[in-house]
Specification:
- With 166 residues, this protein is of the alpha+beta class.
- Helices cover 17% and strands 34% of the residues.
- The protein contains four helices and nine strands, in the order ββββαβββαααββ.
- The chain has helices at residues 47-59, 113-116, 123-127, 129-134, and strands at residues 3-10, 18-23, 32-33, 36-38, 68-77, 84-92, 106-111, 141-146, 153-158.
- Strands 4-1-6-5-8-9 form a six-stranded mixed beta sheet. The protein has a three-stranded antiparallel beta sheet with strand order 3-2-7.
- It is globular and about 40 Å long.
């Protein structure tokens, strides 16, 4: 089973609220999540290029390489019957002054971080994505999640403190 590779981009407004998309299409139809999408592997696209392209396509915000910071990855094995996913998480250093227009993939809204845990977000985002977002200023993170068995296993593979004792 091959990986599906995707990027999520966390974009804020000047007040610090985070832009989320209420998705009209799978994956995660009906759930709120940051803008992003699948990497174009046929074109040899890098994760940074994917993050920039998806941001432009979905929000009309033009980002340069230096405008985004790669702060984490999440590897999901057999994610609830949709295959294996490798997600790259990026933080935008550029803010959006207003909501982007609705797109075919969904509608946008800004939320405070304290509001997000009460939204309809993908279940594993509570365990994987948002805890990493909360630690983004601490350094780079990597998480492996195995959903192939009923007892899901989550392991931190990379963190700012890993390797300090080596």
């Amino acid at each position: 089973m091959n990986y599906k590779i995707s990027c999520l981009v966390f974009i804020r407004n000047p007040e610090g609220k985070i832009l989320l998309l209420n998705r009209k299409r799978e994956p995660n139809k009906g759930f709120w999540s940051p803008p992003g999408g699948k990497l174009n592997m046929l074109a040899g696209e890098s994760p940074v290029e994917c993050a920039r392209r998806e941001t432009m396509e979905e929000t009309n915000l033009l980002l340069r390489d230096e405008d985004i910071q790669f702060f984490a990855y999440v590897s999901e094995k057999e994610y609830f019957g949709t295959g294996n996913w490798l997600m790259f998480l990026f933080d935008s250093r550029v803010t959006l002054d207003k909501l982007p227009n609705d797109i075919s993939e969904g509608t946008f809204a800004f939320f405070g971080r304290d509001e997000i845990d009460n939204l309809k977000i993908p279940p594993t985002d509570h365990q994987l994505v948002w805890p990493l977002y909360d630690k983004k200023n601490d350094g780079f993170w990597g998480v492996r999640a195995d959903f192939s068995k009923p007892e899901h296993k989550i392991k931190v593979e990379a963190s700012p403190n890993k390797g300090d004792n080596a």
